[in-house]
Amino acid sequence: MPTVSEKSRNEIEKILTRYGATGFAYAWQGDMALIGFNMNNRMVRFRLPMPPKDSREFTHTEGRGSKRSPQDAQKAWEQAGRQRWRALALAVKAKLEAVESQITSFETEFMAHIVMPNGKTAGEILLPQIEDSYKNGKMPSLLEFKT
């Protein structure tokens, strides 16, 4: 996987450095890559799922569904990986530019990806509560606004 992501990963690191990040990390395991960084006294983590190499979209052609050679399947998979990394680079850059332009705050823009003291992101904690709230029509106690 490292060869698939190298250019965009380096671009993300440069973007983060330019906007004041004080740390950057990259890791991957299986079909999951992640980046993490420190900025504004916050730890932020983005998970980037990669498509499985054996997915039909890579092993077969789009039009006729013919089986691709292993080399062509590898090329198609690498292209999909590059596209995902480019999308992440664009998203991070857009968020940081919005913060820099004072359109939004750092915390608002990156809230779902801020790592909490328990190691989970705010999104991993809140999204299931939001889903339950919509299912049962009740506000979670931690999200209830008191006036």
Structure description:
- With 147 residues, this protein is an alpha+beta fold.
- It has two domains: 2-115, no CATH class; 117-147, no CATH class.
- Helix content is 49%, strand content 16%.
- It has five helices and three strands.
- It has helices spanning 2-18, 56-59, 70-100, 106-110, 122-136; strands at residues 23-29, 32-39, 42-49.
- Strands 1-2-3 form a three-stranded antiparallel beta sheet, covered by helices on one side.
- Strand 2 (32-39) and strand 3 (42-49) form a beta hairpin.
- The chain is globular and about 55 Å long.
- The mean pLDDT is 90.
Key traits:
3 strands; globular; 5 helices; alpha+beta; 2 domains; single chain
Q: Care to give the gist of this entry?
A:
This protein has 147 residues and is of the alpha+beta class. The chain is 49% helix and 16% strand. The longest helix has 31 residues, at 70-100.
Helix/strand class: alpha+beta
Main sheet overview = 3 strands, antiparallel
**Helical fraction:** 40-55%
Rg calculated over all Cα atoms: 19 Å
Q: What portion of the residues fall into strands of 2 or more residues?
A: 15-25%
> Ends: how far apart?
51 Å
Annotation, overall tally of beta strands: 3
What does the average pLDDT come to?
A: 90
Shape: globular
